[in-house]
Amino acid sequence: MGNQLQDIFPSFGFLAEIEEEKILSGLSDHQKMLLNVLEQAQDRVLICSPFIRRSVVEFDGLLTKIRKCVDRGVQLIVATDEKFDALRGELAENARTGRNQLSAAGATVWVIDKIHAKTLCMDQQLLIEGSFNWLSATRDPTAARLERSLISHNEENTAHYVEGAWKEIGSQPRSLWND
User: Would you say 60 and 31 are in contact if contact means Cβ atoms under 8 Å apart?
Assistant: First the structure.
């Protein structure tokens, strides 16, 4: 009998590799997952990252993958915190540039007060929650922190969890990033 996840998504190999554990661990797993989500999404993607760093959004061809994802008609929302990237009341230039680059690549950037979730959702079939800051965690493996995230993928309640994440994040007072 084949790998069920591989049978459902034959081109989504990375998920098949981690199916047994249902946990992403470390920088490499999280990087691969984010890039694969952007390549495979068909309807919508939600990335909650309280912090945004220019150096991260420029890494791994992320902006190109975002542009291609949006060009396929995928709704791509980035939700970030209003104040975490501020220094003495002013948004840090690194964060401002990163937000601008994400917007220019076609992502809709929601700025939300007091968001601390580190969530990644794809369509109705994937929800990842954990400690990894998707758009700000260092991409230098020698400086990376131990990060772990739990995956719900095509399980009985995944669509319900995904809808819950969209509803909760979407119901928060927010502004659209437009610098």
Answer: yes
Domains of the chain: 24-176 (3.30.870.10)
Residue type for position 98: G
Q: Which two tokens stand for residue 146?
A: 């131990």
The angle at the Cα of 18, spanning 15 to 22, to the nearest 5 degrees, equals: 100
How confident is the model over 76-90, as pLDDT tens digits?
999 999 888 887 888
Q: What are the phi and psi torsion angles at 127 (to 5°)?
A: -135, 130
Please check whether residue 121 is in contact with residue 46, taking contact to mean a CB–CB distance below 8 angstroms. Answer: yes
pTM of the complete model: 0.86
Can you read off the two tokens belonging to residue 26?
């470390």
Q: How high is the pLDDT of residue 155?
A: 77
